[in-house]
């Protein structure tokens, strides 16, 4: 799924209104697994000058990049952080790690050709889901509609639970990153490359 969707879903599940910092922690946890990808893409395209089609056509699938993605999407890495947060009763760490784990889990079921080795370091096995959040050959159009529905539901739920203006502004901005391109283009094709 797209990164803002991960952030909203993670916040909807793990943020607690009585502890406002858990909203920020969950949003950052939903973002965290994709930060290395964004950094690699920006470094390659902006600083090195590699064309975007080469980055997403070749480098993205290279062994070195996939090794990074194995760590940042590892169920074991996120599971250990989540267990630590739960064991220590640390709400902020639990919200962050829970959203990161949920990000990895939703990617597990919505990535086909671009799937990650999510059982690192125990195994290099890759589950290639029969569905893809972006590829129409693997139900990407249907998943796009489901994703949009999840974004709208999570946004409404979060705005209902979190009453402060700054919280609602952050939530609506994240939702707009998904909803506005769909409205402007009339489809979901413009969203690929964010997840």
TrEMBL record:
The chain crosses the membrane at residues 63-84, 91-110, 138-160, 169-191. It comes from the Bacteria. Keywords: Membrane, Transmembrane, Transmembrane helix. The keyword Transmembrane applies. The keyword Transmembrane helix applies. This is Cobalamin biosynthesis protein CobQ. It comes from Pseudotabrizicola algicola. The lineage of its organism: Bacteria, Pseudomonadati, Pseudomonadota, Alphaproteobacteria, Rhodobacterales.
């Amino acid at each position: 799924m797209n990164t803002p969707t991960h952030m909203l879903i993670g916040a909807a599940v793990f943020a607690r209104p009585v502890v406002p910092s858990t909203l920020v922690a969950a949003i950052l946890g939903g973002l965290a697994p994709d930060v290395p990808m964004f950094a690699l893409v920006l470094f390659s395209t902006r600083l090195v000058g590699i064309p975007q089609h080469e980055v997403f056509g070749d480098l993205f699938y290279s062994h070195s990049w996939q090794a990074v993605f194995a760590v940042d999407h590892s169920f074991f890495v996120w599971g250990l952080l989540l267990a630590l947060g739960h064991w220590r009763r640390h709400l902020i760490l639990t919200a962050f790690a829970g959203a990161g784990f949920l990000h990895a889990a939703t990617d597990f079921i919505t990535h086909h050709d671009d799937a990650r080795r999510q059982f690192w370091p125990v195994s290099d096995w890759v589950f290639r889901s029969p569905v893809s959040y972006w590829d129409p050959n693997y139900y990407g159009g249907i998943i796009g509609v489901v994703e949009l529905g999840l974004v709208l539901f999570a946004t409404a739920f979060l705005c209902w639970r979190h009453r402060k203006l700054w919280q609602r502004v952050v939530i609506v901005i994240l939702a707009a990153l998904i909803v506005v391109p769909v409205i402007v283009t009339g489809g979901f094709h413009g969203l690929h490359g964010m997840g």
